[in-house]
Amino acid sequence: MKYGVNEHGYYGDFGGAYIPEMLYPNVEELRQQYINIINDEGFKAEFDDLLKNYVGRPSPLYHAKRYSEKYGANIFFKREDLNHTGSHKINNAIGQILLAKRLGKKRIIAETGAGQHGVATATVCALMGIECVVYMGEIDMARQAPNVSRMKMLGATVRPASSGSKTLKDATNEALRDWIGNPVDTHYIIGSVVGPYPYPDMVARFQSVISEETKKQLLEHTGNELPQYVLACVGGGSNAMGMFYHFLDDEQVKLVAIEAAGKGVDSGESAATTFLGQEGVLHGSRTILMQTPDGQVVEPYSISAGLDYPGIGPQHAHLYKINRAQYVSVTDDEAMKAGLLCSQMEGIIPAIESSHALAQLEKMKFDINDNVVICLSGRGDKDLDTYIKYFGY
Ligand SMILES: *Cc1c(COP(=O)(O)O)cnc(C)c1O
């Protein structure tokens, strides 16, 4: 693949594995084995079976008729919100638990910010009867109490990270410390296309089922497997990479990635990484991240917990730099308005993350025959409190 990872783990200038020496054996084991395991016929059969019968795939490609009229193009929603556990994150969690089993691992660790990845990981560990420890910042545990309860109900242990800002990056540090201490029996499930190589490529492959299905479904709907536009929101970038993956080499397909502008890109409270960031190293890979002039990571902000991340995956940094995809941003207010519109025009309450992608439609000009696919990455149940508070119902 022209835009895929090279044999050194890089996408152009980005990627690699910037890890402490003590993590080297763990990451090296993964690097040597992941391609063979993922391409094994037995693995593929088990992965496909679980995606079908446990997750509920293929997720529908829904032709949104009222949206199509409003925006003057054929608008399609790729319905990842209908997956078991409510978002695309389960696709990756299933892939990694199957991989962990084949590596002979007996224990799973994960980090989580908003709790969505923690819930997906706790879910697949319950499914496989494997011990699960999820690290979560103390502040996030208080903010996302329902997801903490979910993880506990599913049998996972949730360990509070109480250092630093007590949020995602501290949870990530704790998880890495655990992994260094338990290299033989433990697999670390990372939740997005971030982290040291091979994680960004591995997670992208597991999520690529999204665009693989979309091509077939578009062909049925429109007679052509290629749309004019593909849109997806970007936190770390896994739903977007899954949605872009099989369209990357079709250069005529315009790819649009939507970041969270928070209260505005100039407000000091934002997560618009490509706009505000510079090149540097974050969570084990060279990428673009929000940082101070002396290289300290800047605390990001978005109303949407899933987009509240100071970096993007290295493949996104590459696609941005070479202009294969366009990176734009949408504010809290624009996203919330779009979430309400989708609820009332299509009867679908989207996750606030997905509402960011929907809001971008307002800013685009289409031809009447354009086919436009938007990744509806998750459902809005988890966000009802935030929506209700925002709109003052
Ligand atoms: C976690 C999450 C995101 C952001 O993560 P990506 O890796 O960028 O996809 C987006 N939407 C939903 C519903 C999420 O749960």
Structure report:
The protein has 16 helices and 14 strands. With 393 residues, it is α/β, with parallel strands linked by helices. It has two domains: 17-50 and 89-203, 3-Layer(aba) Sandwich (Rossmann fold); 57-87 and 208-391, Rossmann fold (3-Layer(aba) Sandwich). The mean pLDDT is 96. It is globular. 55% of the residues are buried. It starts with 9 loop residues before the first strand and ends with a helix. It has helices at 24-39, 41-55, 65-71, 89-102, 116-128, 138-143, 145-153, 168-181, 199-207, 209-222, 238-244, 273-276, 314-321, 332-346, 352-359, 384-391, and strands spanning 10-11, 14-15, 61-63, 74-79, 107-112, 131-137, 157-161, 186-188, 229-233, 254-262, 278-282, 285-289, 325-331, 371-376. It has a six-stranded mixed beta sheet with strand order 3-4-14-9-10-13, with helices on both faces. A four-stranded parallel beta sheet has the order 7-6-5-8, sandwiched between helices. The protein binds pyridoxal-5'-phosphate (PLP).
